[in-house]
Amino acid sequence: MRINIADPVFQTTLFIIFFALFVVATLKRDTKPYEMDHGHTDELKGVAILMVVFSHIGYFLFADTRFLFPLSIAAGVGVNIFLFLSGFGLTSSELKVKKTWKEFYAKRLKTIFVPMWIALALILAMDYFLLGKTYELPVVIKSFLGFFPVADIFTSINSALWYFTFILFYYLLFPIIFRRSQPLFSAFVMLLLGYLVTRLTLPVTKDLLQLYRTHILLFPLGMAFAWLNEKKPGVKFQEVLLKVFHTSLLAGVVRYLIVAGCTFRSG
């Protein structure tokens, strides 16, 4: 049952104002190098989580979809960020420390499966004890194995878990495909395989298959960026700007305008 809210536009305006004030009040100066490190990826993950949460609240929890608009329209961008960071993180880690495929699976699959199992068990328990809702045994078994062929907000155990099956595909392929000596070629092969697989008749709904196709580029793109990040392009770019503009403030403004302009043109 969806929630009705009085004057959703006004409520959204209030939320955006307080949210913006909170963000400004908690801003901190970034003293780290101009590169993608663990702290920066955590910040981006936080942004991606908010994008997905705002979208689910705005479109599925409340009856009037004007609530949280336009914050509610960026869920797809959030998914893209998660996929990009996953490809980036796995590749960056592998470029630093080589692992056997057994070591990779033992570490990475445990990292994604254990939290999913805990969340799934809690969801099933709450559905049963609070809502009196149960699911067929084959559905439950497939879910614990990480296969979610349907993403329906009203009938699925948790519609957001469609993403788990998608990312599991990449985790299973990564140690087989990736070569430290050829990271860019590895990213291309991953993209090609993803494209070919999503053109097959998969045992998932048509809408879910379309989601796979929409987001297929981002994981390989993250792999390619990890290779680029090893060459520290951000530091070199900042050094050039400082030489030209002499002050870090002006260099920062110019850097922002360049990045924002590129983002606007590509978007």
Summarize the structure.
The chain is mainly α and 267 residues long. Helix content is 70%, strand content 0%.
Give structural notes.
Mean pLDDT is 88; it is low at 263-267. The longest helix is centred in the middle third of the chain and has 31 residues, at 101-131. The protein is an all-alpha fold and 267 residues long. The chain folds into 3 domains: 1-73, no CATH class; 98-226, no CATH class; 232-267. The radius of gyration is 21 Å and the shape is globular. Helices cover 70% and strands 0% of the residues. This is Acyltransferase 3 domain-containing protein. Pfam families: Acyl_transf_3. GO terms for molecular function: acyltransferase activity, transferring groups other than amino-acyl groups. Keywords: Membrane, Transmembrane, Transmembrane helix. The chain crosses the membrane at residues 6-25, 46-62, 68-91, 112-131, 151-172, 184-202, 208-228, 240-258.
Query: Which regions contain 5 or more consecutive residues with pLDDT less than 50?
Result: 263-267
Largest sheet descriptor = none
Number of domains: 3
The secondary-structure element order is: HHHHHHHHHHH
Computed Rg: 21 Å
Structural class from helices and strands?
mainly alpha
Helix content: over 70%
How much strand content do the residues show? Answer: under 5%
Helical run tally = 11
Number of strands: 0
Distance between the termini: 36 Å
Shape: globular
Question: Mean pLDDT score, rounded?
Answer: 88
